[in-house]
């Protein structure tokens, strides 16, 4: 059995870039997980259908992408719950996965807010692709391929052109390392 890794994407930004990324991973025979910002789905509801049509996971990355560790209980619950409601309207499901915005590590408050919205667990990542900083593509490729190992969860972003440039090399590098990119649902089943 080939070891697996999950490529996860923050769902936000230009939908044309998101579509291009999904096309690239599908052409490579890979599956990914998109953790969508609620305001992005409100502005681009067609992206929910596009993600699911490709066989990918679609989950919750809060409504407004606020720094979750700085929010009080009511605001944290609202950020998670409002995005869950957007997902349900768009897809009839709130998705299985929640990732907090603005932090790699959750707190008891974030975890209880996610649980109150129906998310059994919060998902994080162990590899930061650094694409959110818009560095050269080689930096993103190196960050992913140097950090990835079997079972890794990689954090990338749909709304950055550098991700589109780096993705073909990331996918070929994963293949060379005998690592299969899969959804969170497959990795964490």
UniProtKB/TrEMBL annotation:
Cross-referenced Pfam families: Polysacc_deac_1
Domain NodB homology: 3-182
Superkingdom of the source species: Bacteria
InterPro entries cross-referenced by the UniProt entry: Glyco_hydro/deAcase_b/a-brl (IPR011330), NODB_dom (IPR002509), Polysacc_deacetylase_ArnD (IPR050248)
Designated name of the protein: NodB homology domain-containing protein
UniProt source species: Kribbella hippodromi
